[in-house]
Amino acid sequence: MNTLPAAMAATGSLSIGDVAIGFPVVQAALSGYSDLPMRVIARRHGASYSLCEVMLDQFLLALNKRQKTKHFLEIDPDEHPVGGQLMGAEPEQFSAGAMKLVEAGFDIIDVNFGCPVKKVLGRCRGGFHLSQPGVAIEILRRTRDTVPAGIPVTVKMRRGIDDTQESREKFFEILDGAISAGIAAATIHGRTVEQRYIGPSRWEFLREVKLHAGDSIKILGSGDLFSAEDCLQMISQTGIDGVTVARGAIGNPWIFSQCRALADGRSLPEPPTLHEQAEVMREHYSLCEQTYTPTRAPLLMRKFCIKYSQSHPDHETVRLAMARIRSREDFEQVLDRHYCKDGPGQYVPRECHRSQQEG
Fold it and tell me: Is 180 in contact with 216 (CB distance < 8 Å)?
C-alpha cells in the first residue's frame, strides 16, 4: 500500500507538561476496556501513552485493596507514562479522587468532561459539565491546585452539549478557564454530547480549537480514528499536537505500529497474520488471568476476543465462536479451530466500529 504524502506523515514529539510522551498517537481512555491488560498490549505495539478507563471520584474514595477491585489502580512497571481518568460532580470530592490516582502512581490526571452516557449526564457528571462553565472551571482549578505540581492535569471535552451558539460559547469559556488554571492539555472529541456516537466527528472544529489555543495548551483530537491513515490525517488537517485512539484500538493494537510506520515514511504494514493475531490474543488472555484471576478471565476476555476476531477473514464465524468462550480451554479450542493454519489477516472493516462506545 502507498505511503502517505510526506506533509501528512510528518509528526512531532508530544510532551504533556513535564512528561515526555514521544510519538503523538496514544491510547484513549475507554470505559470497560482500557484496563491494565489492554494498556500493556497497546504499549507493546507502539502506543507511547495510555489512559485507564474512567473512574468515579466517589468510587475511588471508597476503593480498598480487595482482590475484586484492586486492579483498578494497578499499573504495570513497563507502561509509564500512564494517565488516570476521573469523573465526578462536585469540585472538592473530585480533587480528592484525583489524589487517589496520584497516590496509585499515575503520571497524568485526566478530567472527563466528555462522557455522553445518559445515566452519567443525569448525575451531573461527564459531558454535563459543558453546560455549566463555572462548576467545570472550579473542578479544574481545584484539581490542579490539589495535584502535585510535577504531575500534569489534562481535560477531555466534546465540542459542546449541542450545536447552539450558547453551547459553543460555553465550550470556549471552559477551554480558556482550563488554560488559566494551568491545565497542560485538552483532548477534544469532534462530536457534541447530544450526538453521542452518531454522525461524523467534526475535525474542522479541532483546527479552530488549536488556532484559538495556540501554544498555551496542547490539543489532542479524538473521534473517527479507525485506521493509521485516519490518525495522521487528523494531525495533518487540523494542526493539533496529537490524537487519542479509542474504539479503533479495541482488539487492534497494531494500529499504533502502523501509525509509526506511515509517520516514518514507510508503507503501511500488512495486517497481522492469523498466527500473529493468535499470539497477541494469548498474551492478552494471560495478562487478564494475572490481573483478575483465571476464574474471572474468560468472561472478561470475551468482549476483547470478539473485537480481535475482526482481523480474521472469516470474521462472523470467529466472532460467534469467541462469544461463547467460558474457559481458557474454550478459548484455546477456538484458536486451534480458526487460527491453527497461518494465513493473511485483514484490516478491521470500518463498519465494525460503529456500535462500540468510547469513554
Answer: no
Q: Indicate whether 326 belongs to any domain.
A: yes
Same domain flag for 253 and 144? yes
When comparing pLDDT for 59 and 337, which is higher? 337
Give the phi and the psi of residue 89 in degrees, each rounded to 5. Answer: -120, -30
DSSP sequence for 66-132: -TTTGGGG---GGG-SEEEEEE-S-HHHHHHHHHHHHHHT-SEEEEEE----HHHHHTT-GGGGGG-
Q: Are 189 and 308 in a shared domain?
A: no
Q: Are 45 and 37 in contact (CB under 8 A)?
A: no
pLDDT tops 90 at residue 355: no
Global confidence as pTM: 0.92
Q: Please give the residue range of the domain that contains residue 90.
A: 6-263
Is the domain of 82 the same as that of 130?
A: yes
What are the φ and ψ backbone dihedral angles of 143, each rounded to 5 degrees?
A: -65, -45
- Residue-wise pLDDT for 314-346, tens only, equals 999 999 999 999 999 999 999 999 999 999 999
Q: 263, 284, 312: which is the final residue of a domain?
A: 263
Which is catalytic among the residues 52, 115, 259, 352? 115
115 assigned to active site? yes
Shared-domain flag, residues 258 and 278: no
**Cell numbers at 335, concatenated:** 484458536
In a domain, 131, yes or no: yes
Rounded to 5 degrees, what are φ and ψ at 227? -150, 165
Domain identity same for 15 and 153: yes
Residue 132 in grid coordinates: 455549566
Please give the radius of gyration of the chain, using alpha carbons only, rounded to the nearest integer. Answer: 20
Torsion angles phi and psi, residue 31, rounded to 5: -60, 125
Q: Write out the three cell numbers for 182.
A: 494551568
Whether omega before 133 lies within 30 degrees of 0, making that bond cis, reads no
Please indicate, yes or no, whether residues 327 and 180 belong to a single structural domain of this protein: no
Same domain, 315 and 215: no
Query: Could you tell me the three cell numbers for 1?
Result: 500500500
Q: How far apart are CA 174 and CA 157, in angstroms?
A: 9
